[in-house]
Specification:
This protein has five helices and 13 strands. By secondary structure, the protein is an alpha/beta fold.
């Protein structure tokens, strides 16, 4: 089994080990470094401001020594964005990635990547509705919301690709699409004021794509082309 792509949702640090264990996901044992697992945000391996954090070091060893695949991370809102933004970068899949570890890469906002022959548009970030209970630059980072340059970078890349890709992976969902999931009621997850969700509305209205995968809402639900993924690990190739 080789050259496959899987997508899953939020891992939130220590939950990586539970969700992706060989007991929970035995298929993972059959993979190699040419197989890719994409996490749709809130990976949260980089969380502490201390790079020597014990959980971080443990997860890096766990991924590099015990797991055979390559992990690709779209950032969510619960990430240490300052550390993600400071990562060394390299060219992969026709775009730029951040190097988290030897087999873990950050898929950067607004890039269009070609992975195993398929085009992926990615845009991380979302609004944290719990930020009033968190400490800035300790457990919440203002950079959770993409800046204008990152938003524009995404639109420029979509223009270069004639507004056509195979797959979209984001952390949150276009605002209009949220009503199919009953997320448009009230201010669930900050959707009514989330600039990322509003931006993705514009993308969804203009983009041709096969399937759209997102996390953030801690559930597993499919509605047409939109796939909310949390515990499931979906093979898309």
């Amino acid at each position: 089994m080789s050259d496959h792509i899987f997508v899953t949702g939020d891992c939130h640090g220590e939950n990586n080990i539970q969700k992706l264990s060989s007991r929970k996901w035995p298929e993972g044992k059959k993979l190699d470094r040419e197989d890719y697992l994409i996490v749709a945000g809130d990976f949260r391996l980089l969380w502490s401001n201390n790079p020597k954090d014990k959980l971080e070091q443990h997860l890096k060893r766990w991924y590099s020594q015990e797991k055979p695949w390559t992990t690709l991370v779209v950032d969510g809102n619960h990430e240490n964005h300052k550390r993600l933004n400071a990562l060394p970068t390299k060219e992969m899949f026709g775009g730029t990635v951040g190097v988290i570890h030897e087999n873990i890469y950050h898929l950067r906002r607004g890039e269009v990547y070609i992975i195993n022959g398929s085009k992926f548009f990615v845009m991380g970030g979302a609004t944290s509705v719990d930020k009033i209970y968190r400490r800035i630059d300790i457990s919440w980072w203002e950079e959770e919301i993409p800046n204008h340059s990152q938003f524009d970078h995404g639109l420029d890349n979509l223009e270069k690709n004639n507004w056509q890709v195979d797959y979209v992976v984001t952390h949150t969902i276009p605002f209009d699409a949220s009503f199919a999931f009953n997320f448009g009621m009230g201010d669930y997850k900050g959707l009514t004021t989330c600039s990322v969700s509003r931006y993705l509305n514009h993308v969804a209205l203009n983009l041709k794509y096969k399937e759209w995968y997102f996390g953030h809402f801690h559930d597993d639900i499919n509605k047409g082309k939109f796939h909310l993924v949390y515990n499931n690990i979906i093979q898309i190739q």
